[in-house]
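Quiz preparation item.
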């Protein structure tokens, strides 16, 4: 009935698998859970994750070479044996004890070929040096169901989504997106262009892993490199994201190099704010636009 697929990298995924396994067993459904580590260093997490193999219908695999984020997911999909695939990020955990049951019920009540349950964050503020990820997540990723329903494609993430396996096979993740960033948007835009509707329900998972702000900021450098790649190759169009729409406006006005120059001058001030205990998302947006202009001016 359901294949639960979890890509991971150097993360203790056992608690998530144990919870999903407990719920799936209680529903007496046919299921499998496959966790694929993308060749992270062998350490205590590898040993812990190996215990997944002791659970019925569950297995943990570790790639010998790093496939990248897109290809790791595609590899998991190709191994799935059931018609519906639940994609979960390794650093999530279901909010409710009837998480699996709710998804099963949604298959009876929804005609869509993809169903997104939502992502939420704990209300307690994290450590001061982890604030940027939490503020971004609470503001940009934790979206009420009513708002998600108003613009289903815009408010979908792939960290907690149930999709027909056939859809994932015919619309695979882009293998060229190796590192963090924009693989979800590329996939979702592909569904949008093919008019494959996405249903939204109230069935959230908590996002748990709050990186230090400096690491999160560095990961966004990688994501913007990905954005440049997919924009240059016409995989996405300028109107597909707010950032690229703004970038194209600057390009038409011949202001990209000026924006890049300004970013270089003010980068340290932006960074000081973003690594503080009160990061501004407005400054974060300015930072991202400036960095994107900079990498397009090389």
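Solution:
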């Amino acid at each position: 009935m359901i294949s639960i697929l979890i890509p991971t990298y150097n993360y203790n995924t056992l608690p998530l698998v144990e919870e999903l396994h407990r719920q799936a067993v209680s529903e007496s459904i046919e299921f499998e859970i496959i966790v694929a580590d993308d060749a992270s260093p062998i350490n205590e997490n590898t040993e812990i994750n190996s215990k997944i193999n002791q659970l019925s219908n569950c297995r943990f695999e570790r790639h010998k070479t790093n496939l990248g984020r897109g290809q790791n997911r595609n590899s998991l999909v190709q191994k799935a044996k059931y018609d519906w695939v639940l994609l979960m990020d390794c650093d999530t955990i279901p909010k409710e004890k009837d998480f699996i049951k709710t998804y099963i019920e949604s298959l009876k009540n929804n005609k869509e070929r993809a169903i997104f349950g939502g992502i939420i964050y704990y209300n307690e503020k994290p450590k001061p040096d982890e604030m940027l990820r939490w503020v971004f997540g609470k503001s940009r990723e934790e979206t009420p169901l009513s708002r998600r329903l108003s613009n289903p494609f815009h408010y979908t993430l792939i960290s907690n989504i149930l999709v027909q396996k056939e859809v994932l096979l015919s619309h695979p993740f882009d293998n060229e997106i190796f590192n963090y960033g924009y693989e979800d948007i590329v996939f979702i835009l592909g569904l949008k262009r093919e008019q494959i509707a996405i249903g939204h329900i109230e069935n959230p998972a908590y996002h748990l892993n709050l990186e230090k702000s400096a690491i999160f900021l560095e990961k966004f450098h990688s994501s913007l490199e990905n954005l440049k790649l997919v924009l240059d190759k016409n995989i996405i169009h300028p109107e597909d994201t707010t950032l690229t729409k703004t970038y194209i406006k600057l390009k038409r006005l011949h202001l990209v190099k000026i924006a890049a120059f300004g970013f270089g001058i003010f980068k340290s001030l932006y960074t000081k704010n973003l690594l503080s205990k009160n990061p501004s998302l407005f400054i974060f947006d300015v930072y991202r636009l400036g960095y994107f202009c900079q990498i397009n001016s090389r």
